[in-house]
Amino acid sequence: xxxxxxxxxxxxxxxxxxxxxxxxxxxxxxxxxxxIYYRLSHGGKHxxxxxxxQIDSTYADGSISRANDIGGDWDIxxxxxxxxxxxxxxxxVWHVVTFDGCAQKYVSAGDATPFFCDPIPLHATGGEYLxxxxxxxxxxxxxxxxxxxxxxxxxxxxxxxxxxxPAPLMIGSDRVVSRRIGFLGDSITxxxxxxxxxxxxxxxxxxxxxxxxxxxxxxxxxxxxxxxxATDCGWLDRVKMCDTVNVCMGVNDLLRGRTGxxxxxxxxxxxxxxxxxxxxxxLFTVPPFDMTGDAKDYWYFVNDKxxxxxxxxxxxxxxxxxxxxxxxxxxxxxxxxGHPNAEGCAIAAKAYLAVNLx
Length: 358
Prior knowledge:
The chain has helices spanning 3-9, 187-190, 202-208, 226-229, 234-239, 251-255, 260-276, 293-308, 320-324, 342-354; strands at residues 11-12, 22-23, 30-39, 43-51, 74-84, 95-96, 105-107, 115-116, 120-125, 129-138, 142-143, 151-155, 158-161, 170-173, 179-185, 214-218, 244-248, 280-284, 316-318. Helix content is 23%, strand content 27%. Strands 3, 5, 6, 7, 10, 12 and 13 form a 7-stranded antiparallel β-sheet that branches. Strands 1, 4, 8, 9 and 14 form a 5-stranded antiparallel β-sheet that branches. A 5-stranded parallel β-sheet has the order 16-15-17-18-19, sandwiched between helices. By secondary structure, it is of the alpha+beta class. The mean pLDDT is 97. It is globular and about 55 Å long.
């Protein structure tokens, strides 16, 4: 199966944020066995998991990992999944996951090509949890440091919290869908203001209000910058596989010293790339994040340009800032936290669904 065939067959069946955020920097290869529990949205007969060896967006100040960095050589020594009704429990049946018929997978240094596993016959239903267990060996491979799901690694006979295992970029289901909805953004989109494993972030709450034959793929990642997405590499390539893409970016760009004009240019580049790929684009105004100084001034400038200029490039605009910000003259100040809490996410999702943008 080619990558195109993968995307034609599988769509996201989990609304948890998914991304490659950081590369491990061990001095020598380390073997780790870890687990993550993913709540499935709708179910399906067969599943496939998508991976990549490439970082999606710059982490923090860029001293650890930057956008489009590629990992080293590493091995998937074993991978298995099982279905459970409660997170944290042991599956009654484990399914060994293979790659081209092999139970192990070698990932080559410098190779940014996404890869996926063979079909897994799970016959899952919505609301079940997929228990994902991987054993990996390497010194430089991608993982998701700010994942909002609990991740544990085996330490003797116990499981210890640790994020340092490769996580799937998509939990793909073969169910028939009529529309694929993507969310491209930073930690606000990922849901870092909500409790772990709660699925109360606004993208997940929007998903709950959409028709059952829609799929939702959250590509939110902490520290994400619009200028990284504008490089038009692996991260943006993935979201191009969606029919409709929601773009909510700009906070980290402004916090890291980008000017208003630079952010507007990057957002315009992103919108045009998605439109050229045939996507319907819903551009969000930059969320309130209690900015000060130049960042605050640029925040007002960028949102004015989104509402009156970049809207001509996108299909429509969702005024996220107006929903979650305070009344003028303090529109830049957040009501429910810069990373919206569950209450703020519910309010944002309700407002989004009310205007029927999709």
